[in-house]
Design a protein that fits this description.
The protein has about 850 residues and is of the alpha+beta class. Helices cover about 45% and strands about 25% of the residues. It has an 8-stranded mixed β-barrel with strand order 23-24-26-27-28-29-30-31, surrounded by 4 helices. It has a 5-stranded antiparallel sheet with strand order 2-1-5-4-3, with helices on both faces. Strands 7-6-10-9-8 form a 5-stranded antiparallel sheet, with helices on both faces. The chain is elongated, with a radius of gyration of 60 Å. The structure holds ligand C2E and magnesium ion (2 copies). The site of one magnesium ion has 4 residues, from strand 28.
Length: about 850
């Protein structure tokens, strides 16, 4: 210590520490310097360093104070006087232009005051300096933050409250009204607990009070009553700030969490539901981590795959549900998905074949969801066992491709097989043969012996065909009684013909259906690829055309397609189209249709001694190109296409009208015979038609005779029989037409209401010369008479035939001998001339 009482820098610093001031000064925002009596700097705080822009305290300590001033505003004497006053105990306030370490100047506001030791002696001077511009900024910032705070209180959805420890509310922020509905005035002075849900008060009051008493803030969720009596959820943090004079109570910060509560409740509920669903669903639900290991495995997964959850969880999925040889590719695919590829697998369900624990193949439908949290993802998968569906699909596919009756491939599968065979041709040498088969006179079996018999025959023929061909060939049922065989590499034409012959032979082996022995016969059309690869449909069509040719030539034979056949088929197609048009035009009584019109010719049926008893209506088609066509040319076509029904209607209406007119004008007892085809007996429309035609024209029912063939009559099951019954009840009569060409059993025919038997021309013409024919005709006539039926001989052309038949007891005839079938007006003339036709064939002349 120096004798003048001057302390050096260290001594000042030590003295300073004794005052306990150092810590406080260090905290100050202002720069603080402690200056020794010799006016050098003894200590400084960090704020002073940064204010003066020094880095280290050492740079500042020991410097004369005067060096910090930019220029000596005061002369040395004035400065000395000022310093002396400070040391004497004065305080100085003012602004000083200062120079910082980096040489800049700036005004600082400075306050200086003496520092005294315990004895009251001034041992140093404290100088506190601040930058006024900084100060201003700080103030402005403070004001702004206060403003912000106010606005925050105003607009915040948080509510601040201050309570006494008793619970009495002494302050509440205005936002309370917007958030809960109470005005601050409603609350202030009331006890806060009274606004809470009683359950919450009971549960929490003690704990809250304990926390506050211990000075711990506490956060709780409470329900606060709204004015309307409902409750809102709040999260509230309470802090006891009773000791802070400005507050003087417990501060509560309230935040409305009702929405969150509702959402939480809903989420909890849906989680519970989801869990239940996952537990109880019949679909396997799996969690899979990004390495392909199972993290979740529900009861359905246990059932489906056979692994318990405890075994599955933690195992690699591929090992659990895939056969060894599929695992590697599955792993690759899985990796791909994890990397963000193969996204189609995530977008829609896909099917795959898994394997159960026991090694059973399991078709499953899989839906995968990727769950990404931050960088990593995992997966959830639903897997549905679709074994049942697959089985049904397979069965359906099989059904769609095979014929139910015979089990053979159907038309669809045939087309596919044929297309494959043809496309193979384009790649190598070889040939494809197509055979189109149609059973001869199948209708007779179906109509005569019933559909069951027909089915039986189809099944047997199918199996015979199957046996006749090689395993590599396809036998398909094409429809009805049609079959198609596709034979690949069956050699050339000769080999194919040989195969066809073999088929004819095998198929026609005796067969018993419905207690009858039959020899099924088929007609076969053949088409063969001869180089190139023709369209499969064309091959079938050509074979079909060739098959028609085989039928035309009498059936039970095979024909190979030739180009000329095609033109015939085209003619047939045109005819079919024209006939439809002609029938429609005739029914609408439109003459001169471009497709031609139907007309009716009438042929007299006479008593051998002369008088015309009746006429048979015989339809004609006047075709614009082919001229007047015989029914033999188009009736079969009409029957096949169903056109026979409208055609029959036209004939019936037109001829009944005509005969009714003749009966009114020239020939009161004239009867009418109309041919009816078996198709017209299907459905019950025919009886209704006949009834209405008779009613419209006034023709007596017994003047109408319907001519039916044996096979039509034999359709004694189903609608046919009903129609016959209906017709008989109307009082019309029936004739058996063309007798002798079918099953030829009159005894059998006894069951039917037949009044007339028409002996077929094939017998009649032979009567004069063939004793056998004469014997048959004689027997038939006798039996017919015995059964109460009349007999008409068809196609009598000569007087010898008439005489021979007359001698056998026949008294009715029809034939060119008396008259050809003639148009209506010529018959009118004939009838007017006198209803007797002499033995001279007048109409022939
Ligand atoms: P059908 O009912 O046996 O008719 C008798 C056929 O014998 C007629 O042939 C007739 O012109 C012919 N004919 C008559 N007398 C003689 C003769 O002395 N010598 C020869 N050679 N032939 C004779 P058409 O008119 O060609 O009719 C053929 C068959 O067409 C008919 O045979 C009948 O089964 C069928 N038909 C004709 N019109 C119709 C019809 O409107 N509906 C139905 N479903 N079939 C009809
Ligand atoms: Mg007839
Ligand atoms: Mg006939």
């Amino acid at each position: 210590m120096s004798d003048e009482g001057n302390l050096d820098r260290d001594e000042v610093a030590a003295a300073l520490r004794g005052t306990g001031l150092v810590e406080g000064l260090e905290e100050l925002p202002q720069g603080a310097l402690v200056i020794a009596r010799d006016a050098t700097i003894a200590w400084c705080n960090s704020a002073a360093l940064s204010l003066l822009r020094y880095e280290h305290r050492e740079e500042l300590l020991g410097r004369p104070l005067s060096e910090l001033a930019a220029a000596t505003a005061l002369d040395d004497a004035a400065w000395q006087a000022q310093w002396e006053r400070l040391l004497a105990g004065d305080v100085w306030l003012g602004e000083i232009e200062t120079r910082t370490a980096d040489g800049e100047r700036g005004m600082l506001r400075v306050g200086r005051s003496p520092l005294r030791d315990r004895e009251g002696n001034v041992f140093a001077v404290l100088s506190l300096a601040s930058d006024p511009s900084e100060e201003f900024r700080a103030k402005a910032a403070l004001m702004a933050s206060e403003e912000r705070l106010r606005a925050l209180f105003q607009h915040s959805s948080d509510i601040a409250m201050v309570f006494r420890r008793s619970g009495r509310i002494i302050f509440v922020s205005p936002s309370v009204e917007r958030v809960v509905g109470w005005r601050p005035a409603d609350l202030i002075g009331k006890n806060g607990w009274d606004f809470l849900h009683p359950d919450d008060v009971a549960a929490d009051m003690a704990e809250v009070e304990a926390a506050l008493a211990a000075g711990r803030p506490i956060t709780r969720e409470w329900r606060m009553r709204r004015p309307d009596g409902t409750y809102a959820w709040f999260e509230q943090t309470l802090t006891d700030l009773s000791h802070v004079p400005a507050i003087g109570g417990v501060v509560g910060n309230f935040r409305d969490v009702t929405e969150r509560h509702l959402a939480d409740a809903a989420r909890r509920e849906s989680e519970v539901i989801l869990r239940r669903v996952i537990e109880e669903t019949s679909e396997a639900f799996l969690g899979i981590d990004r390495f392909g290991y199972v993290t979740e495995w529900n009861p359905a997964a246990e059932r489906i795959f056979g692994w318990a959850a405890s075994e599955a969880i933690g195992s690699e999925l591929a090992k659990l549900i895939l056969p060894e040889h599929d695992r590697q590719s599955f792993r690759r695919m899985f990796e791909e998905v994890v990397k963000g590829g193969a996204s189609h697998l995530l977008q829609q369900p896909f099917e795959m074949t898994a394997e159960s624990r026991s090694g059973r193949a399991l078709p499953v439908e899989v839906s995968v969801v990727q769950v990404t949290v931050g960088q990593s993802s995992h997966f959830r998968a639903f897997m549905r066992d679709i074994s049942d569906r697959k089985a049904i699909e397979e069965r359906l596919a099989h059904q769609a491709l095979t014929d139910a009756l015979t089990g053979l491939p159907n038309r669809v599968l045939l087309r596919d097989r044929l297309a494959r065979a043809v496309s193979r041709l384009s790649r190598r040498e070889g040939s494809v043969a197509v055979m189109f088969l149609d059973i001869d006179r199948f209708k007779l079996v179906n109509d005569g012996l019933g559909h069951d018999a027909g089915d039986e025959m189809l099944v047997e023929i199918a199996s015979r065909l199957h046996r006749a061909v090689r395993d590599t060939d396809t036998v398909a049922r094409y429809g009805g009684d049609e079959f198609v065989i596709v034979a690949e590499d069956s050699g050339g034409l000769e080999e194919v013909r040989a195969l066809a012959e073999r088929i004819l032979e095998i198929v026609s082996q005796p067969l018993v259906v419905a207690e009858r022995q039959l020899r099924p016969r088929v007609s076969i059309g053949i088409s063969l690829t001869l180089g190139g690869s023709p369209a499969p449909d064309d091959l079938v069509r050509d074979a079909d055309i060739a098959m028609y040719r085989a039928k035309e030539r009498g059936g039970h034979r095979a024909e190979v397609f030739e180009a000329v056949m095609e033109s015939r088929a085209i003619v047939r197609f045109e005819l079919e189209r024209d006939l439809a048009q002609a029938v429609a035009a005739s029914n609408r009584r439109r003459e001169n249709d471009p497709a031609g019109t139907l007309r009716i010719h009438y042929q007299p049926i006479v008593s051998f001694d002369g008088p015309i008893l009746g006429v048979e209506a015989l339809v004609r088609w006047e075709h614009p190109r082919y001229g007047l066509m015989s029914p033999l040319e188009f009736i079969p076509l009409a029957e096949e296409t169903g056109l026979i029904v409208p055609l029959g209607q036209f004939v019936l209406e037109e001829s009944v009208r005509q005969v009714a007119e003749w009966r009114r004008t020239v020939s009161p007892d004239l009867s009418l015979s109309v041919n009816v085809s078996a198709h017209q007996l299907d459905g019950r429309d025919l009886a209704a038609l006949v009834e209405s035609v008779l009613a419209e024209t006034g023709l007596e029912p017994d003047a109408l005779c319907l001519e039916l063939t044996e096979s039509a009559l034999l359709r004694d099951s189903g609608n046919g029989a009903d129609t016959l019954g209906d017709l008989r009840r109307l009082g019309v009569r029936f004739a058996v037409d063309d007798f002798g060409t079918g099953y030829s059993s009159l005894v059998y025919l006894r069951r039917f209401p037949v009044q007339l038997v028409k002996l077929d021309r094939s017998f009649v013409s032979g009567v004069p010369t063939s004793p056998q024919d004469a014997a048959i005709v004689s027997a038939v006539i006798d039996l017919a008479h015995a059964l109460g039926m009349a007999a008409v001989a068809e196609g009598i052309e000569t007087s010898e035939q008439r005489a021979a038949l007359a001698s056998l007891g026949c008294e009715l005839g029809q034939g060119y001998l008396w008259s050809r079938p003639l148009p209506g007006d010529e018959i009118t003339a004939l009838l007017e001339a006198g209803s007797e036709l002499g033995s001279t064939p007048a109409a022939l002349s």
